[in-house]
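Report of the visiting student (M.T.), summer placement. My assignment was to run the structure pipeline on a short list of targets and document each run. The first record concerns P-type Ca(2+) transporter.
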Amino acid sequence: MKWYQLDVEKVEQKLHVSAAKGLTEKQVQERRKKFGWNILEAQKQTPRWLIFLKQFQDFMVIVLLAATLIAGLLGEYIDAIAIMIIVFVNGFIGYFQEQKAEKSLEKLKELSAPLATVLRDGKWEKISSREVVVGDVIRVKSGDRVPADMRIIQSNSLEMEESALTGESLPVMKQTRAITRDGVQAQDQVNMGFMGTLVTRGTGVGIAVGTGMNTVMGQIASLMTTTKKVTTPLERKLAELGKILIVVAVLLTALVVVLGVIQGNPLYDMFLAGVSLAVAAIPEGLPAIVTVALSLGVQRMIKKKAIVRKLSAVETLGTASVICSDKTGTMTENQMTVKQLYLNGQHLYVTGDGYQIHGDFFIDGKKTDRRFPNLESMLLYGMLCNNANLMIKKGKYVIDGDPTDGAILVAARKLGLKAIDREKFCIVKELPFDSGRKRMSVVVEDENRMRFVITKGAPDVLIPRCNYYVDAHGRKVLQDGKRKELEQAVLSMTKKALRTIAICMRPLKKDEPLENAFLEKDLTFIGLYGMIDPPRKEVRAAIEECRRAGIKTVMITGDHVHTARAIAKQLHLLPEDGLVLEGHQLDRMTKDELEKSIDDTFVFARVTPEHKLKIVQAFQSKGHIVAMTGDGVNDAPAIKASDIGIGMGINGTDVTKEASSLVLMDDNFATIKAAIQEGRNIYENIRKFIRYILASNVGEILVMLFAMILALPLPLVPVQILWVNLVTDGLPAMALGLEKPEGDVMNRPPRDPKEGVFARGLGSKIISRGILIGLVTLFAFLAAYQNNPENLVYAQTMAFSTLVMAQLIHVFDCRSEKGIFSRNPFENIYLVMAVIISILLLLIVIYWKPLQPIFHTISLPIWDWLFILAISAIPSVLFGFKK
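After the run finished, the structure tokens were exported:
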């Protein structure tokens, strides 16, 4: 269908949709069944059976399987079957870990997918772009990704950048008229919007005519669906560590085998023991456990309303030393309320909070109404130069659109103006708000076909463009004295932490050309809106907590310097000697000058998105790890340049979200603090189970090595070593990944990004605990063997039980750097359950007679267990008392 050739009415008829009401829920369901989800075909997923087989591609596992095959051929059927079962169970655990991680990542992709604003059953609502169906009426604005191919039916200075499709980087101005000629290529279809392209300017509405693979983007889907698995820096470090450990483990294992053969042990027995030891010693599950720990942490972050788009951000969060945060909506409630008006040279006060439409206007303590000169005109102009809508949800008024626009709209409703008053006027042209221009304008036509321009924006931008002003007696020329009076009015409002918006107008002559360059000149000043966005209650505590954690919080805002300063002081963000810099000062400063003052600056006011990049680079040049928030299209460069880009989930544009590594679902500063805390905790949890697994592995290798050096029989048989690797290394290590943050996690300075995995004494802890675990296991073996040298199985059972119990006690020591006694053992119920399950499995292989010949065990009396528990506790308790 050549949709570009059809006029709007024909498109509506063919798709059975009304542009005024959108689709019904029934139509949506029917079309989804017919056309499917609005997604490009994903890359073919690896079959599950292949993922399972990959668990056995490790070289040492292959050697072990070959050894068990030899054992079977030599008639050692029980050992061979037992080892095969353990290897396969280990494979299943690895498979389920990988599946869990994959599902978590898929869920993340869905959560961080772009949103679309669609009209359904007469109401605008935000949905995931994958839910868009053919016929949906879609609204787009600057910064959005177009969610589907659509025929544009409304355009307000709408421009789209279509380089993803055409290679042409210049934005294309869009219009609504049908194109009559035939054979028009996509790049020339100026009344169409295409899936995946970027809205760079203006606003518009369109009807979806193609979704998923039935789009222009779908035709080149192969370019879009080639995805690579991205590993995080920590995963890469651990992969390198794994290679080193493999070499060390193989050398030590070879040494054990050689010593065993020299001492007269059978070559086959020593070979099987050596391979089993190597498999147990090499932490092949470490990368999988790290991935699972990251994905579990990410799930916790989602519950705290932070979506991680890039896993590497989880690690970087723990190193953040500066948070550069927007003020509006992030540090404040984002519920703008007009509290004051400046009109006719007088200040009017407005009652009522939030978006409730009840309130009154007072001057000099006396109530006034629409009879006050120019009041109705000013509020009507504010309604017309406005893209927000007032809606009722769950019995409360909410704003669909920009909060500033919403506040102006609510102020008009308080005076009694309604939506019907807006409908008496026709918007002929719109010059959308732009953070660089700091203003928005509309050309309006009234019922008498008279046209005029309404402009609203920053007072310091609009007052210089005004040549006239209005008061109670009519329009007058704006002299220098009056200009200073207006500037003084702005100053008095900003000192009260009010954000100021000026509103101006200009009548247009008949047939006057609507050239952008001329519309916003020679304006008439009408009045000022003074509005406040109160600070969020939880932000002050979050800033204080960040300060204790060694993280500096910086406020960045486009607001007036006095407003920014007042809010910063309310939040206890600005110290007495803290600097406040304005945008015009940044423009004059050299790179070196900014770097010298950056550490003393806490507030940046009157800045543009372009300034943000300069601020980020200045902090980074001083060695800081910077987290930067943003919501607009122009914020994307600064967000990309920062170490942790943070997009806004509610008010952020799709482009900003895509550039971000973290998206806040509630646009709240306190969520950034929670994400940093969780990021620090995830890293610490990964360190905990690295410590646990490696110390356990060191203990297993050393007990065998010490025994060989002392010319003793094998303290552990291969099946026991593999059982320890499966049970005690697996479940408790996973449970460590679920540890809650320690009480002082936010009282420590940020982690050095260059810090190695074994920093802060982790390496020495692993070696010291590993040596002690090996020694107490060997001691248990020697004590049992010397008392009863003819019963080797009894001695091996004692060693086996001691090794398991020493590791299970050691796991509680790994919960904190401060030692085993520093935390309540029952805080982590998952760890307690994992340890109980491991103990029960140990008791089963010791006391269940059918398993005794398989695991070379024998039943132990109660006094042996008292001895085992006493010496098993030594490695952890000894260092606990030392702490």
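Residues 669-709 form the longest helix (41 residues). The chain is about 45% helix and 20% strand. I thank the supervising group for their guidance throughout the placement.
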